[in-house]
Amino acid sequence: MKIGILCYPTYGGSGVVATELGLAMARRGCQVHFVNHLPPVRLMADDCSRVFFHEVSVPNYPLFPHPPWTMALTGRVIQVIKEYGLDLIHAHYAVPHSLVAVMARQITGRVKVLTTLHGTDITLVGTQPDFLEITRFAIENSDAVTAVSKALARESVERFGLRCPVHTVYNFVDLEHYKRRDEGLRSVYAEPGELVLVHISNFRPVKRLVDVVEIFARVRQKRPAVLILAGDGPQRCAALARARALGVAADVRFVGLQQEIVPLLSAGDVFLLPSEKESFGLAALEAMACGVPVVGSDTGGLPEVVGNGGGILAPVGDTEAMAAAVLEIARDLPAWRASCREQAQKFSADIWVDKYQDLYRQVMES
After folding, report:
1. pTM above 0.85, yes or no
2. Is 109 left (phi over 0), alpha (psi -120 to 50) or beta?
């Protein structure tokens, strides 16, 4: 099978999962083609001969107020379909990838389209008045549609009034790669006996980074601890200001973007994810796979991921309850490390790549 993959090539969860799925399908014998302006972050570390990257160049004419990205991407996808004979396009994130795939199918007349909904394409971008109708059109004209959690599948149907089924196919994690390893970094960031809290994200407002700092400050009142913040984004300055105001800035470590996060997670005791919304929570799953229990918000798909053994969730914004949850977990870390790893095994790549492979076959036979 020859598969085209459209995704955002950054550190976000949708791009990570799309890349890992493409690489997994290539290892199973498929020919996989990524089409974008940049190669996905995790693609650059792989040398599989069945994986191809096709760069999109966007014309920038004075006539255009903005570069016509959607048209440029569609045109490049059409070229790849014709040159390589693609069988299927897997569009991760509906805006604009689902529309691009549907237009490319309409023009070439020969490719199947699978759309995977990841979250903000539904909860934020796609439902804006200027985008709603065209996003609904693209979703409903896909040959199959999946969402990364049951919560997102329900929300997608409700928000768009979809008349097509939306199947739940969870994100996944490579359990051989994501597992607790050498804790060498721990001594770099913390003194013996200190609790190590970790947060990894793009520091957008939806991640509630200030809440992360406030949870840490509450924990810090009860016992020695440090907070590691990995990533970068618009809320960095607000988080630093709050840490200074609370008198804990000296114990907060901003470590920037990390391409390899397993060593960092292996140094951690509890992972904080107090987001406003998480349609799945890939960062939480990666932490759990590394034996780091999660304390976060009871929102979106996160309860499906964390389950009963992966950590403790509380209402959005309840930093007091989340701090109490951190302290509860800290009282029995060995048990929590074992139970969260066990919960993560339900999202093994072997299980969910099989699900996608079966769905690809069904779409091709439809």
Report:
1. yes
2. left
